[in-house]
Design a protein that fits this description.
The chain is of the alpha+beta class. The protein has two domains: 76 residues, Ubiquitin-like (UB roll) (Roll); 68 residues, DNA polymerase, domain 1, CATH 1.10.150.120. It contains five helices and five strands, in the order ββαβββαααα. Strand 3 and strand 4 form a beta hairpin. The protein is globular.
Amino acid sequence: MDKEKISLKVNGKVYELEVYPHKTLLEVLRNELGLTGAKEGCGEGACGACTIIQDGKPIRSCLALAVEAQGKDILTIEGLAKDGRLHALQESFIQHGAIQCGFCTSGMILTSKALLEENPQPSERAIREWISGNLCRCTGYAKIIEAIQAAALRRG
């Protein structure tokens, strides 16, 4: 099988790559670009650890082929901070103790960012629904929900 030339726009930067057509976006982000914030948890799209934002929507990068991401705007956790300042969600997760082992954190934060872009003042129920596809085995979700609510208030 031959490699294909692709161009990916990740965190505002364009990368020209040659990848095998069966490689997932997660594999290319981690192994080719060194962007290791997205994690492979289940490899089946069920845990949310590999969540990134593509064209404004959270997606499971373990289920997306890299060759299909051409022409799309990709945001990973590495691109969230601006000018050396953490994003409000990153700060809030730290302040509210919503990070423990950290495995789910990037996916949780990016899912939350997409939520707040669509609904700047979500109810607790809306937050719970949005993050329901992101599994966390450490926190019990209470601190994560508090962090998202606090970030929404700071933005509002």
